[in-house]
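Researcher: I'd like a structural prediction for the single chain below. Treat it as a standalone chain; there are no partners to consider.
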Amino acid sequence: MSAAHDKLLALEKEFWIAGEEFFRRNADKDCLVAFTEMAGVMSNADLAATAKKPNRWKELEIELKGIVEPTDGVVLLSYEASAVRENGEPYKALVSTGYVKRDDGWKMMFHAQAPLERRSQG
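Model: Treating it as a single chain, here is the predicted structure.
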């Protein structure tokens, strides 16, 4: 994995736990998002507003599934995330995020999560 890919993975982890200011600095002007409860283009300000509470997640684990760089300055990564919500509820999802290189650094311009159903143990 390249140094740029390592940096993007570190940014990705921070998006899970950081607050509004981090989102404002590291999300692109507009970001395409897709979650089970919503999908569409969100402005930087609207996306940042979703992170009003820092440390929303704990015990985050990321299992990288793939990284592609279809053209210079655009990187897409996919991974399986496991985390625990602030209220203690476990969460697992398949996640994909796209970054674009701007003059002031890498910016998240796409993010999608597909929750994985919890499998019963027994």
